[in-house]
Amino acid sequence: MKLDEFFVTGEPLIYGGMVAIVLVTSAIIFLLTYFKKWKWLWREWLTTVDHKKIGIMYILSALAMLFRGGMDALMMRTQLAVPDLNFLSAQHYDEIFTTHGTVMIIFMAMPFLIGLMNIVVPLQIGARDFAFPFVNALSFWSFFFGALLFNVSFVIGGSPDAGWTSYTPLSGAALSPGPGQNFYLMGLQLAGIGTLATGINLMVTILKMRAPGMKMFKMPIFTWSSLITCFIIIFAFPILTVALALLTIDRIFGSQFFTLTGEGLPMMWANLFWMWGHPEVYIVVLPAFGIFSEVIATFAHKRIFGYSAMVWSIIIIAGLSFLVWVHHFFTMGAGAFVNSVFSVSTMLIAVPTGVKIFNWLGTLHKSKIEFSTAMLWALSFIPSFVIGGVTGVMLGMAAADYQFHNSYFLVAHFHYVLIAGTVFACFAGLTYWYPKMFGHKLNERLGKWSFWLFLIGFHVCFLPQYFIGLDGMPRRIFHIGPEWFTLNFLSTIGAFGMGIGFAIFVYNIYYSFRYSKRETTGDAWGGRTLEWATPTPVPPYNFATLPEVNNIDAFMEMKEKGETTFDEKKLQPIHMPSNSGKPFIMMAILFFASFALVFEWITLAAIGLAGGLIMMIIRSFDYDEGYHFSVNEIKQIEQSRRGLDHE
Amino acid sequence: MSEQNFSSGPLEYQTEQSRLNILGFWIFLAAELALFSTLFATYAVLSGRTADAPAPFELFEPTSTLIMTFLLLTSSFTCGIAVHEMRNGSKKGLLTWLIVTLLLGFAFLGFEIDEFITYVHEGATLQSSAYWSAFFILAGTHGLHVTLGAGWMILLVIQLMQRGITRVTSRKVFIVSLYWHFLDVVWIFIFTSVYLIGMVM
Amino acid sequence: MLDFMPFRKKGLILLLFGIVLLLGGCDQMAVFDPKGPVAESQRDLIVYSLFFMAGIILVVYVAFTIIIIKYRDHPKRKENSYKPNFHGSKTIEAIWTIIPILIVTALSIPTVTTLFDLEKPPETTAAKEQKEPLVIYATSADWKWFFSYPEQDIETVNYLHIPTDRPIEFRLSSTASMAALWIPRLGGQKYNMAGMETILYLQADEPGIYDGRNSNFNGEGFAEQTFKVHAESADKFGQWVRDKQTNAPKLTQEQYDKLLKPGLTDRHTFSSTHLDWVNHGTHKGMDYDIIRHWKEYETLLHLEVGNIDESIEEHIEN
To answer: Does the beta carbon of B15 lie under 8 angstroms from any beta carbon of chain A?
Structure first.
């Protein structure tokens, strides 16, 4: 292979990207060296098994991916702003919408939410860490290197260009030769290992490590939604694993699963993909519902309305999510009966979802609403999401779907549910739990600017797309005709509004780091659940002593009784897991193996895989038992973090 | 091996971490079940799509698959005896039966590899048609799992020789035995839905 | 700042409603401008559902706005309007579970009946006699359309003539990548797939020229894979058929294979069809294209808006 085939050449935008990557990387290396931070980076972050630090790394990576996916979106909207523009060529446009979709779902939405779960769930249930802290680190690094592999395609080898759904036969070896599609397959596969591991890990944590007295139906809603999300991950992700593996084997080793030759069955991909893909939608939206429930209850200063209805609706939604995959391809000609069944099952999802919406309204009823930034995100979710929800029901009506399918109506719908659901929740959750993570709040004034710009930009961007869709504009075309100009132009303006909103959000992180008042208590907002019972910054072991939980709002009860998580009489030494560099090294090795496989360098890939196996063997012989915090150490940590003057 | 004296319930359940690991592994097996179900579903959908390659009934051999089934079922049984010996605290019995299990597992793999080679010589390869792709990937994935399980068991044999039966090693043995029994169950499904049905059709 | 926040929120909602009403008012949108019975039945279903959707949105928005304003943290609020532990009411929860179920039922019934109707050729109004559907094989290739009229023995590329007031039975298939035939003013789409045949019934009641396209992304030339549908009276259609039967050249397999190559092409008309040697909708025809043009799929078109016409010319020269 020649060098100009290895690197992507000929695109000025990509050259710009390469220069930017080189500059940013050298800047980071320079800063780390100049401030002598390499050791710190390794010891505090790359080898950490602490769920709070891993969560922060997830969220930082997700923000970076949101930036990348957002740049893709802005480039697409620029190309579509004016009829027949030549800002992007057809090929480049195809690559960008593919990476936009993949990055946003797999490398932004999921890690963002998993990051929040990482930080919050153990704190909410009174656990000292995940059940398997080592595996948790492994999960993060698998996501990180999966994302890295996928993003490398931008400058090396060329990006995938068959859409985030990668329908066969288009994405097969015959119609999409070259490494681009392999990047998609291997990047997702690598990241998928971590997602599955997190699902198992978090499920065991929630099932087995709750504070004494916290029965299942006393868990906070966010923990409930995380548990159900884990359930979906455990049963849906293996399907994706298989689908990706089969297509990889098709492309690299010449099997005939999805091919046009050898009596392959290309339509099977769509089935497998959506049998994972539809549950996947709920993997990113159920935790979002959980976040909104927490934020709304806190800032409405009122107990959540209809707790058990909330929980059961999550469970029902999760169950139904496995029974609706065909609605993604009603137009495949499965016949009226099959389409009818899946139409009805799809529309049924609206019932538990509607129940949730009304329960949030019920929570707000007779409450005392405090319009903090986090609350604004949560409140604006309700009217925005309802639009996405009702259009979702319209799409679920198969006979009408023949007209909506593959059009901008569909594009508008899923952006309405995924942005108003997931992205708003990520912003709400990050703003809400920020003081717990970093010891200071995000600036409220900047936060509100970013919120209003993003919200208005969002509606201006996506509401017109419903109408362009009804006018027959299909998704994924790289230039528009003059008849669709006005609404597209409006949509582009909205997209840039969202971009500015996001930029302000990121600036706010920097601004608040410099200027925000530091938190002294652990309870920044008058919280209701156990995460607010810990001091800030949260000690490595989270809870010095565990409270007895009798109530859904465990921390409210503690506050009434005057209890804390630092009961000196009950102190005992706390066992902690040791840090380990193995997760990072193992996943780095698998990254190189996958990279080799992308270019079909089989020997190198095999060597890499062997390296991964050797790491697993080394791990098997690792009998490190961890270490303990002594009672005195705990006393010191707690007294200093709680500002108690003991002497 | 003084740790044995802590006993209340089996040794492998005695620490909190062990209980977590075992539950975690059960959930992992649920995910594995989803994985194999997907492979079975693809196999079912693609059955009959043999293109120009030979049909399965022309190639499947009842005797060798029966021997393979016998080998794997027996290995599951010996694996059970190994765990029983472990609970009796007999390191020697545990090691003996684990090694017997391993030998049976390797015999199974030997037959499977031989079977695959025969098929390839007869003109049915991974590349020849959708059906054969599905066959090789389904049976191959199971075979790969058996290989990994055997490798894992070898590691445990070494660790048992180094450390004896402790709360940690006993938990590891118990988990690998769960894995081994699971692969046995999967094989029963492969035997019936792939080989038996394939020979009849 | 906190105090007027809810009013800004309300203002935004009003603005949104304004946009909805403004845009909802224009009926030139293709889906709301049906020219045949299939598109009409789908339009009717959509409009029917829109009433429910508007109702749901209205209820939620009104309730939301009232609650947000009434229960904001405000110094003048009465003490007894704040009930921090009010957390459930069986009656109201039952109501907001049952009403959505009723709505879903109300939407399901017409959806299912329409679905079954769409499987059959549309029935003409009682005044006119029912005509046998006209069969057209619509085959998608990268990135062009072949329309074969087996009864008339005509094949067109990238355009289509159909008679009005007569159901058209499209038999959809593809030479390689999956596509979808969509003529929004005549009705919804269905997929074209290699090795499979899907059937789509459409009908035009009004003569006119309508836009049709592939709506399912299938690679670089996707945006250009469009065609025009010329709907005309039965007489005019007959004239067109006779004209093409006599004047258009025969389609040879060699020429067909050349046309199949991935790329763009202009309109063509032939007085014979490719069905004589291959039907891509059958198991046998599935790999016809791919085994001939494996190599060609590796080259890019380098498609930009300006060079689309050039690409078409270039292709014809080759």
So the answer is: no
B130/A239 CB distance under 8 A: no
The CATH number of the domain where B191 resides is what? Answer: 1.20.120.80
Question: Using CB atoms, which chains have 3+ pairs under 8 A with B?
Answer: A
Q: Name the domain count of chain B.
A: 1
Which residues between 114 and 133 in chain B have a beta carbon less than 8 angstroms from any beta carbon of chain A?
126-133
Domain membership flag for residue A621: no
Q: Is C303 close to A90, i.e. CB distance below 8 A?
A: yes
| A contacts of B128 (beta carbons < 8 Å) | 256, 262
Joined tokens for residue B4: 């044995």
The pTM for the full model equals 0.94
Query: What's the rounded Cα separation, in Å, for the pair A516 and C53?
Result: 44
C-beta atoms of A91 and C195 within 8 A? no
Please tell me whether residue C124 adopts helix, strand or coil conformation.
coil
Residue of C nearest to A470 (CA): C31
First to last CA, chain C: 69
Q: Does A238 lie at the interface with B, CB-CB under 8 angstroms? A: yes
Instruction: Work out the pLDDT band at C123, boundaries 50, 70, 90.
Output: confident
Tokens 């030139």 -> residue:
C28
Q: Which two tokens stand for residue A111?
A: 């890690």
Q: Which residue of B has its CA nearest to A238?
A: B35
In Å, the largest CA–CA distance within chain C is: 90
Q: How far is CA A412 from CA A21, A108, A218, A405, in A?
A: 32, 19, 37, 12
Same domain, A409 and A385: yes
Tell me if chain A has a CB within 8 Å of the CB of B50: yes
Token pair of B162, please?
């180094």
ipTM field: 0.94
Tens-place pLDDT, residues B13-47? 888 899 999 999 999 999 999 999 999 999 999 99
Closest approach of B148 to chain A, Cα-based (Å): 10
Say if residue A251 is in the same domain as residue A285: yes
Q: Facing residues of C269 across strands?
A: C156
- Residue-wise pLDDT for C68-101, tens only, equals 999 998 888 887 888 888 888 889 899 999 999 9
Q: Where are the alpha helices (DSSP H) in A471-525?
A: 485-515
Write down which residue in A299, A316, A338 finishes a domain: A299
Examine the domain organization and report whether A9 and A86 are in the same domain.
no
Q: State both tokens at A503.
A: 């930029």
Residue A395's domain comprises 368-518
Say which DSSP state C132 is in: P
Q: What is the rounded distance in angstroms from the CA atom of residue C23 to the CA atom of residue C32?
A: 12
Partner-chain residue, chosen from C61, C71, C92, that has the shortest CB–CB distance to A366: C71
